[in-house]
Amino acid sequence: MGVLQIYRHEPDGSLRWVTSVDSMKMARMTIRARATSSSEEFLIHDDQANDSIMLRADGHWFYGKNDQKRLTPTSPVSTFLSSVPR
Questions:
Q1: What is the DSSP letter of 57?
Q2: How far apart are CA 57 and CA 49, in angstroms?
Q3: Sheet order of strands, 61-62 included
Q4: DSSP state, 81?
Q5: Which strand (E) or helix (H) includes residue 7?
Q6: Among 6, 42, 2, residue whose Cα is nearest residue 22
Q7: Roughly how many angstroms between the first and final C-alpha of the chain, as a whole number?
Q8: What torsion, rounded to 10 degrees, do the Cα atoms 30, 32, 38, 41 define?
Q9: Cβ distance 32 to 57 under 8 Å?
Q10: In this predicted structure, what is the pLDDT of residue 82?
C-alpha cells in the first residue's frame, strides 16, 4: 500500500483534499477527527495502486456514491475499490 490521499466529499459533489497518510488506520483516525457529522463522506485514494474507496465518518464503507449497500466497520476490506469516482 502506498501513500493514501484523503478527500472530503463536498455537498456540491466536488472533492476537497484533506491530507496524506501512510495507513488505513491513520486514514480512519483522520476522518473521525475531521468530520463535522457522522454522515460526512470521504474518499481514500491509494496513489500506488491507483484505487479508491469511499468511507463515511461513522465508519461505513461504500462501493460507490450511488450504491446504497454498505459494509459495517468490522467487515473485511482487502483491497480498494476502483468503482468510486475520483
A1: T
A2: 23
A3: 15-21, 4-9, 41-46, 51-56, 61-62, 70-71
A4: B
A5: strand 4-9
A6: 2
A7: 18
A8: 20
A9: yes
A10: 38
Taking the CA of residue 29 as centre, how many other CA atoms within 13 Å lie in the half-sphere pointing to its CB? 7
pLDDT, one tens digit per residue, over 39-75 is 899 999 998 888 888 988 888 876 554 444 444 444 3
Show the cell assigned to 18: 484533506
Q: Which residue has the higher pLDDT, 56 or 76?
A: 56
Q: What is the pTM of this model?
A: 0.69
C-alpha cell at 86: 475520483
C-beta separation of 1 from 43 below 8 A: no
The candidate with the shortest Cα–Cα distance to 48, out of 76, 80, 18, is 80
The residue-averaged pLDDT of 7-19 equals 93
Burial environment of residue 17 by CB neighbours within 10 A (0 to 12, 13 to 18, 19 or more) = exposed
| pLDDT over 60 at 80, yes or no | no
